[in-house]
Amino acid sequence: MSSTALRLLRLSLAAVWLGTAAVCLWGYPMAQSMALLAPLGVQGALAQALVVAAALLDAALGLATLFWPSRWLWRAQMALVLGYTAVITATLPQFWLHPFAPVLKNLPLLAILWVLLMQPSKESS
Fold first, then answer.
1. Domain boundaries in the chain?
2. CA distances to 80, 97, 105 from 46, in Å
3. Which pairs count as long-range contacts for 53-58, CB under 8 Å and 24+ apart, including other chains?
């Protein structure tokens, strides 16, 4: 795969992480984000703290994707995406049937991460 294509994959991946962080912190109502955690038994200040912590983690992953790409980063992102997918599947399975397919979109993210992971380390950075 060309270095231009790999850069494009990295930039689009970083945009997803950074965009998700921004939407979680400033675009989507905090009360609705917190309500998504209710099926897990998480409410109140803890729910708010988890939403903010998850958004900050997403931002950190986006910045790391831009500035410190590495195989460990791709593996960590894959683990997080799989973890989020498992939790959503168990607690909010209706998101698999949502018209905007928020969980189904994890599949191309995992494919991008797999492609990046399979590149020789010089090309993935």
1. 3-124
2. 20, 28, 27
3. 54/24, 55/20, 55/21, 55/24, 55/25, 56/21, 58/17, 58/18, 58/20, 58/21, 58/24
Amino acid at 30: M
What is the amino acid identity at position 8?
L
What does pTM read for this prediction? 0.90
The tens digit of pLDDT for each residue in 68-120 reads 999 999 999 999 999 999 999 999 999 999 999 999 999 999 999 999 999 98
Q: Which two tokens stand for residue 86?
A: 């498992």
Residue 19 tokens read as 């965009």
pLDDT digits (tens, 9 = 90+) for 33-63: 999 999 989 999 999 999 999 999 999 999 9
